[in-house]
Amino acid sequence: MTSPRILPADHPDVAALTAEGWTVAQESWAARAEATxxxxxxxxxxxxxVKELGAFRPLTVDDVPAALALDAATAGDYPGGPATxxxxxxxxxxxxxxxxRAFGLxxxxxxxxxxxxxxxxxxxxxxxxxxxxxxxxxxxxxTALKAASMLALAFxxxxxxxxxxxxxxxxxxxxxxxxxxxxxxERLGFVVDERWLTLAAPTGDPG
Length: 207
Description:
Layout: E1 5-8, H1 12-19, E2 23-34, H2 37-47, H3 50-53, E3 55-58, H4 64-73, E4 100-106, E5 112-121, E6 124-132, H5 141-154, E7 169-175, H6 179-187, E8 191-200
Parallel strand pairs: 6-7
Antiparallel strand pairs: 1-8, 2-7, 2-8, 3-4, 4-5, 5-6
Helix pairs in contact: 2-5
């Protein structure tokens, strides 16, 4: 079986492949946000409800078991296809480091209810994923958590609390069918600058 092809929407091969019978199986996107003063105000507004939703803090190595448990419980909840698939975390990938930061929201009983992981490369941060426990979705936890984490990375309360250098550009993305993440990203000021297509081979293609 021929593997899907994942290409930028404006890639010249898209027209050639569709002419051969390939079909668009999924659309996805990537977006960018800069850490400006205006963005800071936007993120502060979005993050203001964090205290009402739970206790926000960076994850540490002690939180790895809880992160793995939440990841396993939500593994099948990511919409989309291979372009936006979420790889189940391992003990290694769940471990926060200087270049892989993680933040969580905790309920009053100490349970981890939402988490986001962000990969850093200098002043650029790529949001790997953000997830909320299934029974708590629809209350803005994901947006608030993402906003609070962006503030922590771009505008730390003290130099010791944030990365060096501080993050100036954030990137995120997702499946076009994932309306929730698209709305959250728009609220946080992300602007789509890449569109991707996942193309499926014609039915009966032997590969």
